[in-house]
Amino acid sequence: MAKILIVDDSAFARNNLRMIVENGGHEIIGLAEDGEQALSLFKSLGPELVMLDYLMEGMSGMEVLKEIIQHDPDAKVIMVSGLGDSTVEEEALEAGARTFVRKPYAQTNILKIIDHVMEN
Amino acid sequence: MRIRKKTAKHLSISKNQFEYFDRFLVASTRKTLEVLETMFSLNIESSDSSIKILPTVDVKHLELLSSDPLFVISSEMTGEMHGRLKLLMSKNDFTSLGEALKPTLKLLFLSSPDADLSTLEDQTPKWMEEGRRPDPDDSVFLNLMMDTSTELGNILFGIYTDTIYEVFDLHTHHSLPEFSRDNDHQYIQEVLSSPGPKSKQHMLIQNDFTILENHFALWCLISPSKKSLQTMLDRVG
């Protein structure tokens, strides 16, 4: 079971992902709707895994990812996005994301990905 | 699923080039259906799909734009192609989608950590009850649908840019989508008239779906700049 922080500016996406990962036995320790809130919760809660949306108003997911990795180079971050362009995925992986997941979330798939990231 | 295609008479697109737009329609419709089913965990039927390439003047006079109001999710397209992406829903389609997604919206409303559980029973909107159709003027419905349909637009725009890459080999991505309720179509008419990245021709994709006996149409207006449309045609010419 992983302690997870979910970061997404869409309430639908946050709650959808929250229900999926809770059904998979994981614990959601925080929900953030923007980059500033995400960084604050990351520092105060120390999640084992961050599910971070790429496209957000204000601080982008990439900016948040870079700050998280700067704060903790071993942080486990899964970047999620509705963007279809593969260059975005490459950019996220280069910046330190463990993997990149395309929205929408299929329950079985996302739980396998979380397990894989947590095991490695 | 029935697929229709149509092109403007005044635009010179060869049969071979149109084959690629046809492929674009088939691939994007298939992915859209998959996305809707995954996103909302519902069985969805696709009944009709079409792609038209229209000049601005024809878009302005579409029957869709006579619907009052119009719900619009907008994004900019950048990369190897520039232009605009718009997901358009008439009031009726927006309400039908909301009706179909009522279980999802209810769950979203009830499970929101922001909801005050102590007074939730009193706050639960009447339209969430069985047999009541949502009211697009209800602020809770509008807020939930604004968030849900903006996320839907975000994912669908990802599908369209992904399919543009797959079919036309052009890397593009979209900006943060914005939702607007266009009461008197002033917004959409302004967008179509604005100088912006000039779009003389638009790709209009219509997908008709049925969820739990609720029929609705999703219209996507892809407005590539003049140069970008030419690039698309050159890639497949």
Q: Poorly predicted ranges of chain A (pLDDT <50, ≥5 residues)?
A: none
- Counting DSSP H or I runs of 4 or more residues, the number of helices of chain A is 5
Shape descriptor of chain A: globular
Range of helix content of chain B: 40-55%
End-to-end gap of chain A: 14 Å
CATH superfamily of chain B: CheC-like
Strand order of the largest sheet of chain A: 2-1-3-4-5
CATH class category name of chain A: Alpha Beta
CATH topology of chain B: Chemotaxis protein chec
DSSP summary: helix tally of chain B? 8
CATH class of chain B: Alpha Beta
Distance between the termini of chain B: 28 Å
Strand content of chain A: 15-25%
CATH superfamily of chain A, by name, is: Response regulator
Q: Which word captures the global form of chain B? A: globular
The percentage of residues in β strands of chain B lies in 25-35%
Mean pLDDT across all amino acids of chain A = 94
